[in-house]
Protein: Periplasmic nitrate reductase, electron transfer subunit
Amino acid sequence: MKNAILFSAIAAASLGLAASFAVAQSADTVTSLRGAQPDQDIGLAPVYHQEEGRQDRNYRQQPPIIPHTIDKYQIDVKANECLACHDWKNAAERGAPTLSMTHYVSRDGVQTDDVAPRRWFCNQCHVPQVNAPELVQNTFQGSDN
Structure:
């Protein structure tokens, strides 16, 4: 019985804390590092095909930057919309760069016709290219090698 009362008291305190946190985090108190309001449309660029060109890489083995938005792309366990254009089976027809052949090598080093599971989630290495101001001062210098 003591444990039930203690559990009820902890649960009530937790709910009270969660509710006060939710009120403190309302849309009026959230601020963006870029100064935009949380509900403000920041005007993302539409998908384009190399019109602005690719950005140079800063170091060897840097994954290429994605030159278009991927906001509404489904990239999860069930589907990967990037492959609709970039899989070797579709790239020529779509005029898109083909994935590196390293994406078709299994963990055991076997060459396959399908993207390896460890390379399935493109955005764990590749990020969309955006023209945005730096959020913090950046003194990074790219490699000359």
